[in-house]
Amino acid sequence: MAKDIIKLGDVATYINGYAFKPEDRGEEGLQIIRIQDLTGNSYDLGFYNGKYPKKIEINDGDVLISWSASLGVYVWNGGKALLNQHIFKVKFDKVDIDKSYFVYAVRYKLNDMGKKTHGATMKHIVKRDFDATEIPYPPLKKQIEIAINLDKVLMVIKERKRELKLLDELIKARFVEMFGDCTNMISLSDLCLIITDGTHQSPKFQHEGIPFILVSNLSKNTVTYDTDKFISAETYKELYKRTPIEIGDILLSTVGSYGHPAVVVEDRKFLFQRHIAYLKPKSDILNSYYMHGALLSPGCQRQIEEKVKGIAQKTLNLSEIRKIRIPVPSLDLQKQYADFVHQVNKSKVAVQKALDETQILFDSLMQKYFG
Q: What family is reported (predicted)?
């Protein structure tokens, strides 16, 4: 059987997971795999030690598709486990199709599926829309060739990301090496001229103007300005006095990935939400890049973990931030560390550039093969 286009419903059988109840989850048996266990956001593993229908058992190599809350396609490699509801296990029993090719094809189509989701509290794609989704269906030999080409590019992307992670670990290791024995511990309240948070008002947003950034803009250890929220110059003038941002200031996330710092490195106007803390270090005793490293150090991160409050949404309050204590060596040693960070960051820029270029190549190939 061969045709140019095929519907997902004609490719395979999709077996939905079991609706395990809270009381089914224990500490022994086979792990129950939920969507958050696939996305890497799970910190609460659950296990089931009882009888179960064989069809919900998953093993290494099985292809899984989450169809509710967070759409995604995954190849399971965590050993024998049990599948929770809202996830399909793919049983390739209808046509000849390369598994890797199928995964790439579904991954490309996820954006289209997202436009067809239903539900107010939990977005999901209904089975008939999923089954009706079409993917290109070339001969098996061509499928394998396409998958191999994409695998090669994806391998380079993963290697670039690994290099970036290693460079970040190098910086953290250097901090511990230089300052792990420093006993001059001082609280942030004594090291900063200002410790406050972003605006608590709900400004009127517009399509262009001065960027208004969120916690998600604190990435790669600096501030990014990619946002669809902007404010007028008048609104900025009214609100900026609370947070007079300058180069060298530190922003710190207080919810979500709380405790993640970013250094302001550009001289530009912007405002930010109240879930971001603003720290202005005293430049005569604290180097900004040293302070950034100190906030990421194991000792400081432990303090942050101890100080977050809340159950549904863990939050790092300003009063607790002020109590955080960091080692404060001489400015000369701080500068030595900052110089080291700058040198490593140059390497990171080069790796990031290569990563971005490879990602563009990957995206263009996906468009070519499945668009």
A: Belongs to the type-I restriction system S methylase family.
CA 67 to chain centre: 20
Residues 13 and 127 in one domain: yes
Which CATH number goes with the domain that contains 146?
Answer: 1.10.287
Q: Do 58 and 75 belong to one domain?
A: yes
Name the residue with tokens 């500068």. Answer: 335
**In this structure, what DSSP letter does residue 115 have?**
T
Q: Clarify whether residues 214 and 323 are in a common domain.
A: yes
Residue 318 Rama label (left phi>0; alpha psi -120 to 50; beta): alpha
Counting the structural domains of the chain, the total is 3
Residue 271 structure tokens: 């405002």
- Burial (CB count within 10 angstroms: exposed 0-12, middle 13-18, buried 19+), residue 117: middle
Q: Name the token pair of 169.
A: 């670990």
Can you tell me the distance from the alpha carbon of 79 to that of 198, in angstroms, rounded to the nearest whole number? 45
Distances from the Cα of 75 to the Cα of 81, 94, 121, angstroms: 13, 19, 27
CA distance 135 to 60: 25
3-state secondary structure of 276: strand
Of 137, 153, 175, the one marking the end of a domain is 137
pLDDT in tens, 10-65: 999 999 999 999 889 899 999 999 888 888 766 678 999 999 999 999 999 999 99
- Whole-angstrom distance between the N-terminal and C-terminal Cα of the chain? 22
CA–CA distance, 251 with 201 (Å, rounded to integer): 18
Q: How far apart are CA 11 and CA 8, in angstroms?
A: 5
Residue 81 in 3-state DSSP? strand
Give residue-wise pLDDT tens across range 193-249: 999 999 998 889 999 999 999 998 987 778 889 899 999 999 999 999 989 999 999
Residue range of the domain that includes 155: 138-166+329-371
Contact 67, 88 (CB under 8 A): yes
What are the Cα distances from residue 108, in Å, to 36, 158, 230, 348?
Answer: 21, 18, 31, 29
57 - beta bridge partners?
Answer: 82
Give the tokens for residue 324: 């955080």
